[in-house]
Amino acid sequence: MAKACEPPAGIAKLAGVLREHGRHCTLLDANLEGQLYLLDRDYSGKDTFSKRALRNKSANIKGLQSLELYKNPARYLKAANELNRLLEIPGKPDIHLSLANYQDKKLSPLRSSDLVQSAAHPEANIFYDYFSSRLDKLLTENNPRMVGFSINYLSQALTSFAMIGHLKERYPQLPIVVGGGLVTSWLSNQAWKNPFNGLVDHLIAGPGEIPLLKLLECEPEHISTTPDYSPLPLADYLAPGLILPFAASSGCYWRKCSFCPEKAECNSYQVQAPLDVLDSIKQLKKATTPSLLHFLDNAISPALLQALVDNPPGLNWYSFARVGPELADQDFCHALRRSGCVMLKLGLESGDQGVLDALQKGIDLDMVSKVLTNLKNAGIATYVYLLFGTPPEARAEARRTMDFTVEHSPAITFLNLAIFNMPLNSPDAEGLALSDFYQGDLSLYTDFAHPKKWGRKEVRHFLDREFKRHPAIAEIIRRDPPFFTSNHAPFFSHNQ
Asked: 328 vs 219, 252, 274, 307, 371, CA distance in Å?
């Protein structure tokens, strides 16, 4: 389970590379299909809300696929909540399902033993009726040499392993290869020992194009920058038109922030030439006619920003970006808006300069103020990310972040509030008293005794009792689209 509002970029990228090397592949977005399957089931909910949600199901799906709904936030909220209700019902009482998440009260994706158990009993998974027949049909029709799974989020792991278990039971000789963001994080752990021998034949970390070609006994020639989305059901996603995801880089070009998993996992930075990116987007526009371009980069490079200004892609787009000198240039921000930029996601993290310096963010608050003002004046929405509970922060610093947020609230369109998780192998963990954060051998984070006694409990209390209750901040928070958050936010900002 993940937000089913845009096609998965990873497997589309692999499909483009395989096609270029003369290899056929079939793509399955089991996340989208699985959610639509659950939404299409009969429900036993008898309360008024559930009955109304069932009655409005088709209209709500069509509404989320129409820009008209996004012009009325109240109607959008009603449609999203009613669809979410229909996903909640079949999971009760043991599984928490939503449009953005999957949590099992009995099994944890942080324990390899639970993932193995999920594979051993695929029939116990809530999606079994869907994936057992769907996978059997695909394998009968295509007779593949190999099946690959892309697992990016914890919310996808248990069901992915149930699917793997089903395939191993029915087709024991069929090789299984597994990659994706979550698997990359597993393999980067210095204590990693493969618990999936006999279940998964190949685990791949990082970009999978070259390893996959080698597994298929194909010598890598030219690694295309153009994904192939054509095998996916592009009209079925829960968005008003196709959101086209595109990764111009992997890793992060800054990679100095002490709190970031990119640094802790030692992920390298790989970037495509801006002109190659623009050429790929041009090809994809012809093939897919998207309504919005979503750059997936951890931070879009200044070189690509300049290329987009010089050669506008001809459609609206949004991305993560670092606060930097280019955005402090008012004329450049106006040029970005003319290029189609409707929203930038900015990882501010803190409104206290001392905290930013300790985190090695490499930004100063005077520049942040200028960037926020420039983007607002240019008509570009901002989705600002704040991180509370980092080792250098205490209540006083958190309150300075609140003051900064209030002061700049007219220029902040959306907010994302997070509580700090200490990544395993983080340099920040040195010298701190550590303990298990989540019980499980696959946990990506560690708990720690905060050096300023500003623990998670205190942070939550501050956010709930002070930060979120400030009228200027509460108004921003109310704008955030439920479940789909930043993925749908550009459609609201474009309507404002």
From this structure: 46, 21, 21, 17, 5
